[in-house]
Write a structure and sequence with these properties.
Blueprint lengths: L1 E12 L7 E12 L3 E6 L5 H8 L7 E6 L2 E2 L5 H11 E4 L11 H6 L7 H5 L1 H11 L15 H13 L5 E5 L7 H17 L3 E5 L3 H4 L4 E6 L2 E4 L27
Parallel strand pairs: 3-8, 3-9, 6-7, 7-8
Antiparallel strand pairs: 1-2, 1-4, 4-5, 9-10
Helix pairs in contact: 5-6, 6-7
The structure holds adenosine-5'-triphosphate (ATP) and magnesium ion.
The site of magnesium ion has 4 residues, from helix 1.
Length: 252
């Protein structure tokens, strides 16, 4: 089942003292339920911008983007927030934890917007998720008392606590040592499998990228599949559409 469909998507931002800046151009992409997607690319190539689009935080400037078969531009603000809260787990490049709230309260936050069991049992569900990232014993700690890697794990627990169908991770292991990073990726994989979610990971780490089933690269806002090169992919295997040029030479 197709969760995300992008065709000819661009993202352009207005600048005050310069012409508009096109950050993404001609992005064609299909993400299916259960996919594991990695995105690599140099700093400034547009990776976070793309992830913000996939996570319904921003709209494409032009082009078509369907979430669950529905054009994203057709959502009202409230619908968009509800769908994002229920279906999307976002792990930000900067962890974006709420300061002045404990680790447990941070992980519980998404459940405040859930219904039924998820709402009523939010403290237990959030505590279990903190256990799974190895931070059960730090549930009362404030973010500023946690190391960078611990904050990252709290952010990961928060993103997974509602069982999202789409997990978007922007450099999820950037602040972690190799071993913790591998454990965190195992957890992301596991939770994605449990909830039948797609997992899209931005990474600079080739070992993390290698875990994916679809390997993408961004070069100056142009998305292409790594490993297929400039040649034509076999029929039915091209997930980026026919128009995306190769990005050989971009960081892989
Ligand atoms: N709202 C904005 N206004 C102006 N420029 C922007 C805006 N958002 C992003 N950019 C620019 O677009 C380019 C892509 O940004 P983006 O954050 O997507 O890069 P990235 O690939 O995630 O980089 P990094 O690896 O450093 O995180 C950058 O040059 C950035 O400065
Ligand atoms: Mg970024």
């Amino acid at each position: 089942m197709t969760l995300l469909h992008l065709a000819g998507v661009t993202r352009t931002v207005a600048l005050i003292d310069a012409p508009p800046l096109t950050i993404l151009s001609g992005v064609d992409l299909d993400v299916m339920v259960g996919d594991r997607v990695s995105i690599v690319g140099r700093s400034g190539s547009g990776k976070s911008t793309l992830l913000n689009l996939l996570g319904l935080l921003d709209n494409p400037t032009t082009g078509t983007m369907l979430f669950d078969g529905r054009p994203v531009q057709s959502y009202s603000g409230g619908q968009r927030d509800r769908v994002r809260g229920r279906d999307v787990g976002f792990i930000f490049q900067q962890f974006n934890l709420l300061q002045g709230r404990t680790a447990l309260e941070n992980v519980m936050t998404p459940l405040l917007y859930a219904g039924g069991r998820q709402f009523w049992q939010r403290a237990r569900i959030a505590g279990d998720m903190l256990d799974r990232v190895g931070l059960g014993h730090r549930r009362s700690a404030m973010p500023d008392k946690l190391s960078g890697g611990e904050q990252q794990r709290v952010a990961i627990a928060r993103s997974l606590v509602r069982g999202p169908r789409l997990i978007l991770a922007d450099e999820p292991t950037g602040a972690l040592d190799l071993e913790t990073g591998a454990a965190v990726m195992d957890l992301l994989d596991q939770v994605a499998t449990e909830s039948g979610a797609a997992l899209v990971t931005i990474t600079h780490d080739p070992a993390i990228a290698a875990r994916a089933t679809l390997h993408l690269s961004l070069d100056h806002g142009v998305l292409s599949e790594v490993g297929t090169g400039p040649s034509t992919p076999a029929p039915g295997t091209d997930r980026l559409g026919a128009t995306a040029p190769s990005a050989w030479g971009a960081r892989a």
